[in-house]
Amino acid sequence: MLHLKVQFLDDSQKIFVVDQKSCGKGLFNLTCSHLNLAEKEYFGLEFCSQAGNHVWLEPLKPITKQVKNPKEVLFKFMVKFFPVDPGHLREELTRYLFTLQIKKDLALGQLPCSDKSAALLVSHLLQSELGDFHEETDQQHLATHRYLPNQEYLDNKIMHYHRRHSGKTPAESDVQLLDVARKLEMYGIRPHPASDGEGTQINLAVTHMGVLVLRGNTKINTFNWSKIRKLSFKRKHFLIKLHANVSALCKDTLEFTMASRDTCKAFWKTCVEYHAFFRLSEEPKSKPKALLAGADGAAHTFPPCCSGRTQRQLLEHGRKAKMKSLPFER
């Protein structure tokens, strides 16, 4: 049996026991059951690989094939897919977990935004955690809890906004925080360092809409899924092949260089998962898919990282559940 340690978004940790031959899905399902989480497809388990890369635990592949010393690895339960509108999240628990992810990203400086937006986000966190504004309580809390890297300069602005949220429940505060977060330029973006064909340092990222190219925190190009004919990687080169009507305006194939084959493959897998989750109408079957074929020059089926309901299936399930709960009159 494997004894595996998982850290949750509130920084609590728990040991889960799984069979030696268990796939990633076994551990992930245990974590979701522990949380009593229904909308689990938005989340995943991240760990640091032996090469030092942060990668997602693949659900359909044995854990021991992915992790050399599983009992020495800390698996982190995190938000994996960021929907364009978190207001579509059906469960209060799901929204709360997204709020914890935003809180963690803010504290780590991984969600860059203006001072105004940062202070507003923290003020919603305070309303959720402390309740209505009380100056002395706020001051003491902010002195002992770090929400932002530059927090000391924003304490007064945070308290100014907190005053406005009187009467809001924790659940209402979560909804308002997510509404602020989704409008931020870097919401849901996880930059992956790379260089372009001219050797300029850039970042690549993938979102619900497609693949982004960033310089620092500024988006310099967006390749929507509809523009992309094929994504592939060859050794440490990540390739985006565009449809003919798009490539008339630029090159047919865009090539980016990443640190290693492993980092390139990990980013390609993330793109596969994002495309499957946000673009497909149902859970992908393991059939060749032209858009995502071609790793190391060979055709690929959906890799074992693609498993679970798509966003469309989750939203449809939510609509049906809501309809069932409505009191219809004959």
From TrEMBL:
Limits of the FERM domain: 2-282
Q: Name one GO molecular function term.
A: guanyl-nucleotide exchange factor activity
PROSITE patterns named among the record's database cross-references: FERM_1, FERM_3
Q: Does the keyword Magnesium apply?
A: no
Database matches in InterPro entries: Band_41_domain (IPR019749), Ez/rad/moesin-like (IPR000798), FARP1/FARP2/FRMD7_FERM_C (IPR041788), FERM/acyl-CoA-bd_prot_sf (IPR014352), FERM_2 (IPR035963), FERM_central (IPR019748), FERM_CS (IPR019747), FERM_domain (IPR000299)
Query: Might you name a Gene Ontology BP term for this protein?
Result: regulation of neuron projection development
Q: Which Gene3D superfamilies match?
A: 1.20.80.10, Phosphatidylinositol 3-kinase Catalytic Subunit, Chain A, domain 1, Pleckstrin-homology domain (PH domain)/Phosphotyrosine-binding domain (PTB)
Presence of keyword DNA damage: no
Mind listing the UniProt keywords for this protein, alphabetically? Guanine-nucleotide releasing factor
Pfam families in alphabetical order: FERM_C (PF09380), FERM_M (PF00373), FERM_N (PF09379)
Name by which UniProt lists this protein: FERM domain-containing protein 7
